[in-house]
Amino acid sequence: MSQAIPETGDSVVDEVLQTYVGTAHQPLSERAEAATQAQRHLQERLAESSPGNGPAAAMQRVAGGQQS
After folding, report:
1. CB distance 14 to 7 below 8 Å
2. Where are the domains of the chain?
3. pTM for the full model?
4. What is the pLDDT along the chain (68 residues), one digit of tens a residue?
């Protein structure tokens, strides 16, 4: 059975999803690594797309630092 890959309209997110879904028949260890990479890329994209929230500000919030 083939898994439908959702399209978000964001080319970066769509590419990440397509790459991850493409690992469906890989060994579990490779899928786990692909999931980790997908999460990292999606977090980066989310940080980029938030107005006034560059990657440095996002990392500061995650680390519990002061927001400016």
Report:
1. yes
2. 11-17+25-62
3. 0.64
4. 566 787 888 899 999 999 999 999 999 999 999 999 999 999 999 888 776 655 556 556 566 655 55
